[in-house]
From TrEMBL:
Transmembrane segments: none annotated. One of its GO terms (molecular function) is fatty acid synthase activity. This is Uncharacterized protein. Residues 48-123 form the Carrier domain.
Amino acid sequence: MPALPLTNNGKVDKQALLSQLPFNSHTAQAGRSAMEASLSAAAPTAGVSGRDLHAEVSAVWCDVLEVEQVAPDAPFFTVGGNSLLANVLATKLSTRFNIDLPLTEVFQYSTINAQCDYLSTKVTNPIAAPVRVPEPIHPAKPTTADQAIAMIGLSCHYPDSQDAQAFWQNLIEGKNFVRHSQCAESDAAMIWLDTWVEGQDAFDPGFFNLSEKQARTMSYAQRQLLLHAWKAVEDAGYRNEQIPNTGVYISASGGDLTDLNLHDKFSNGEFVLNAEDYVASTLNQPGTLPTSISYHLGLTGPSLFVHSNCSSSLSALALACSALKAGEIDYAIVGAACLFPQR
């Protein structure tokens, strides 16, 4: 024999090699046919259709070999198979027919016909049709109308305006809330303007289960924001325990946020801070303003302090709207304060 016969992919052509061996190749073929016939005779008649089994095995072969079709009598290793793919084939056939197919059986029964005859003795249940997973149903994208947001409660306190109704009436009348300060007479070089909010120091600590000592450590902004957050919920017709999934978005500025109870605390060049002053400085940090509202009203949504200079209030409102549209919260409280210490 001058050379071993090869297939198109460079492997040994076993069929051609078999025909060149000294013994009668027809005898070997007859032996294989007898073995396949005996397997066919032993196949159970109930449960599995031979045609369905053949189609299923062929589909697995094509999947493993990545081809469109395979001749039913072509050996696995002559149509592109190798030892690695043989493992894959054994695994896929075992999974598909819910049996334990040893790798050695793939080598022994190396054609589709032979494997079908072998599997027909192992598969006792009807072949289930491949399960078709339905396409996921995606809800229609919400329209602008579906994402509409309503303002259902309001509370505010402005100069010369104790509530929203008074503020609206003053706007209708075109009233100017800015007036000259009494300090203007003492400094002719400057014109002082005043937008004082009367009654900003009025606060009932007992209503929120706070002691008077605790209230004294709270800035005017913190007191008023807590008070008007509660009033806004009341104006909406709710009790705070009915709307736990509510986010709180607050912005604030003013002279009382950082200086409360911290004046004249220097002694001999050192900064002396007693316990009450320390509590005041901690509770009046900007981030405490929204979390204090969430705590006292029993709200479990996000509590964010928003600062973007002159756009802080609108930024807080935009964040609240985004959270509402995303379904992260059911309600939102948005507030802002700009207050200065009592004169």
